[in-house]
Amino acid sequence: MQPFTGSFTQQEPVPEDAIEAAVDVMRSGRLHRYNTVQGELGPVAELEKAYAAYQGSEYCLACTSGGYAMATALRALGVGVGDTVLTNGFTLAPVPGAIAAVGAEALLVEITRNLVLDLDDLEAKIKATDPKCLLLSNMRGHLCDMEALMALLDRNGVPLIEDCAHTMGAAWNGRKSGSFGVAGCFSTQTYKHMNSGEGGLITSDDPVFMARAIMLSGSYMLYDRHGAAPSPEVFEDIRLDTPNMSGRMDNLRASLLLPQLQALETNIDRWNARHDLVADRLRRVDGIDVPDRPEQESYVGSSFQFLMPEANADRMQQVVKQAKALGVELKWFGANIPVGFTSNHQSWRYVEAQDLPNTDAILAGLLDMRIPLTFSLEDCANVADIIAHVVEQALQKGAA
Ligand SMILES: *Cc1c(COP(=O)(O)O)cnc(C)c1O
């Protein structure tokens, strides 16, 4: 079998029009978002306006990172020291990190075989504790039944913040991910759906919440220079009570993002063509389970996950190792020690240790792979063939 030679961490170049816009910002010297002239909407404000429109939300705030967006959303909702925040047992470290940033306690909720929040466990944990909110992580782009979730949260009076780092552009029943709860939080870090190196966005329809978030981001009372902010009266009551926790986006990053937002829908189609090719090929392999994608879900296939439910730890390690020897980078979420971008709740020692037997059993058989747009469809077919080959080999050896 020919090894694959593509790079799983190589993203596409920033588009030429974005490079030109960024060079213009640098030539102007006006990189700070509030360094505008009278009546001018700078690139950050333009981005907020454009992203609010894309998302179909009233308000949008651009900030420094996805993690900052989540911590700011928690603070703006009034979550603080000692409060309980529910979140997925399967997510990445910036999520429990955002909860830790506000001094709250993460209470982890089990996931299902489809890699989404287990709504029964969620309801049991809501009843057993008095959570301030649910920080839902749409981990690896898998959406739970959002209507059932909202009914459950409404019934119990629990507000929702959505971590949409992997669902920018995704939807449930035609409604954009990030528009279900009080706020949606997005990341524009290099490995997400738009790339400004680092960056974050918060969307909301709640004026007081958004006014607080804007004050927290460090607006120096210049909130009238925002692109999608509530009207100045809304700030009157909260402006002197809300601290400045500096985390603004700058004009350079926003200028990189504006043209990428134009290209987002096209890129989603390109990701899904690649994702679906791999998924269709691997669904037919014995020993591999591909999570279901309900018909209500419009996903963005920027990564691919599969389960090997029958394999033990040795087999999983063997698959990872042999795939790697053939140039295919798979991440195993069952490992005890976090490697690269994988992370398992047991390695978050700042969170109280919690029993998640179902999640642990699922993660023990879960493999994950990035799908960068620098891969052609042919590359994706090669990658899928290599995975099929190493899985078949590992399972044969397992039987012998
Ligand atoms: C990347 C990521 C974030 C946000 O990350 P930043 O690097 O802070 O922008 C949040 N949640 C998940 C699941 C992520 O993968």
Beta-strand content: 5-15%
Structural class: alpha/beta
State the CATH class of the largest domain.
Alpha Beta
Q: Compute the separation of the termini in Å.
A: 22 Å
Ligand names: pyridoxal-5'-phosphate
Fourth-tier CATH superfamily name of the largest domain: Type I PLP-dependent aspartate aminotransferase-like (Major domain)
**Lateral arrangement of strands in the main beta sheet:** 1-9-8-5-4-2-3
Unreliable runs:
none
Q: Number of DSSP helices? A: 12
Tally of discrete structural domains:
2
CATH architecture of the largest domain: 3-Layer(aba) Sandwich
Query: Mean of the pLDDT scores?
Result: 96
Nearest-angstrom radius of gyration?
21 Å
Report the order of strands and helices.
HHEHEHEHEHEEEEEHHHEEHEHEH
Name the assembly state: single chain
- Topology-level CATH name of the largest domain: Aspartate Aminotransferase, domain 2
User: Which overall shape is indicated by the principal axes computed on the Cα atoms?
Assistant: globular
Can you give the helix content as a percent range?
A: 25-40%
Strand runs, count = 13
Biggest sheet layout: 7 strands, mixed
